[in-house]
Structure formats: C-alpha cells, structure tokens
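ok here's DUF4142 domain-containing protein:
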Amino acid sequence: MFSGRLAAPGSRRAAAVLAGLAIGTLATFAMPMAAAQAAPDTPLTAADKNLLSAVRLAGLWEMPAGNMAAEKGGRVRVRQVGAEIAKQHAELDRLVVDAANKLNYRLPDEPNSDQQKWLAEMEEARAGADFDQVFVDRLRAAHGKVFPVIAGVRSGTRNDVVRKLAADANDFVLNHLTLLESTGLVKYSELPLPPDPAPANGAAAGSSGILNGAEARAQIGGVDPAVIWVVLLAALIAGGATTFRLFRSGR
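and the structure:
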C-alpha cells in the first residue's frame, strides 16, 4: 500500500514523466510536418518559369484587349467585362512582377506572336457584335488553356513564391472565365474537350483511401512511417519503465 506522504511525490514524478513522453510523442509527429510546411527556397523548374512567363504574357495582351472591349463592345455586358478584366490583370501583373523580382527571373516585356495577332484581329473587327464575338472567343480560349497549367504548378511546385503566385493566378483566371461566360457569347460546343483521364494502375490510393509507402512519406515530409512508429514504441517502453521505477522507489 502507498502511504499518503509517499504516494503524492511519486504520482507527481510519474505525471511529469508521462507529460514528457506525451510532449516527445507530439514532437515526433510535428517535426516532419513542420519541415514539410517550411519548404526552403528551391531552384525554379521549367514549369515554374513557364508559369511566371505565362502570367506576365496574359497581362500584356489582355489588358489592352479589355480596354478595347470597354470602348468597342456592342453589348453593355461585354464592355463591363472588358473593363473588369483589364483592371484585374493590372493587379495580377503587379503580383507576377513582384514574384519575379524575388526570384531574380526575367519576365517577357511584350505579347508573343499569337497574342499580337489576336490583338490585331480585335483592332480590325467592327465595333459591336463582330468585336464582341472575337473578344470573347479569343480570351475564353486563352483562359481555358492556361487554367490547367496553373493548377498543375500550384499542386506540384516546390517553390513557395511560385506556389503563392499560382494560387493567386488561379483565382483570377477562374473569375475571368466566369466573367466571359456571363456575356452569353461562349460557344461551349466548340471548346476543346478535356483530355481523357490516365488509365488506372492497379488499386489507386485515391479510390481506396489507402496510401502507399511513398505517398505516406510525402505527406509527412519524407519520413518513413515505420521509422516513426518504431521510435514511438521505444519511447513508450522507456517511459513505462521509468514510471514503474519511480513508483517502486516511492513505496
């Protein structure tokens, strides 16, 4: 039996050991997760550079296109959409220039040849219905192409600055798609179909909900889950033995 005087100190020591063990257990899980979240600066990949350039190029031709729509549009809604897209691209352009400066990456300073042709086509189109259709067709097609590119970089880039830009650009592009579609001029039947999904390879983790070893390591910062469980088990055994000895010494 424990006496009243001896049990209290022993219990306090045991509680302290168990608290330390709990803290150590939490730290074991927290360390790889924190390492995964605090991704270091990494060299730009080809996809990262492509995104930076694509966002910059989009602004270089869609700002003048939007301003043209605000003046030449036949429908009130087209004029409104054009003005709003030009305004939003000015903000997105500021974001991509800021990101490029942080990454010491040189951005293009004029639209590419295709974009220059689209602008020329809009300039030549008659104000009113003809212009409205050209404006919506060209901008809707361009946004449809860049949308999946942004999503791919957002989900896979290792660079924090690029990831933030991709997230911001994704919001802008989705909003622009919605604005263009609100004109009622998008010809959905003429849009390219989405690519077919890749064939399933065995029991996919996404459908079963079970992660394989590589996927599990990726989610916890590259540490093998088996290693973590071995460490936890050893910590529990050591903590239990220490607690038992403390209780024994307090008897």
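+1. Residues 26 and 245 are 24 Å apart (CA to CA).
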